[in-house]
Fold this protein.
Amino acid sequence: MPKAVFAQVGLGFLTTLMFAIAIMYGINDLTAVSTTPLSFPLAEVYAQATGNQGATFGLLFIILISVLICSIGTLMMVGRLYWVLARDNATPFAKTFGKVNERLSCPIPATLLCAVLTTAFGAIQLGSKTAFTDLVGSFIILTTVSYFLAIFPNLLTGRKYMPRGHFYMGKFGFVINSITCLLIVFFIVWFCFPYAFPVDPLSLMNWNSIILVGCVLLTAAWWFIHGVKKYPGPKLAQLYH
């Protein structure tokens, strides 16, 4: 699994680098790109590079198809993640969202719930573009915090309760895990700083700190309301047999 992850990161880096180089060569007016009234600056880049509306539309259509395909895969993945949590009795209405349609081999209730929530979050942009941008950007912070919550307790318990994998590094693991936790804390603080100071107008405010604290409070509240007594924890034992 780690080899597959590293291969994916490596291929993603190479393809992104080549795409970025091509984009940079295609820009004729950087100011026009940064100040474009379009909600998708890449459209301005394509327009400058091709000088033709039809070609610009064709290139953007390729992006649209890619986004649609990725959205389907992402929605299916998120639906299954929520189903796993519901199966382990970690979510509200776990019995409903922990079901799987055997004929379709798909957790229909969990997938539909994620689709509704995704649509609702997307509608935030209609009210506040700043709030939507920060909500999307909070993915980096929330994902990084999830890594911290997995690594730090493992450090506190002396790394004794997690099964050793193929990439177990022995005593060096303590050092690497400790540095990882310190870097996570450092970057989370930086990512929560406002974009400018003083914060005026509010469009310059970075709402990631509010989103992070809100998620932590909601998760903690649900843990004390439900998780302490009714959540047995993930079924890790089944993964190693």
Residues 157 and 163 are 13 Å apart (CA to CA). The first helix runs from residue 2 to 26. The radius of gyration is 22 Å. The chain has ten helices and no strands.
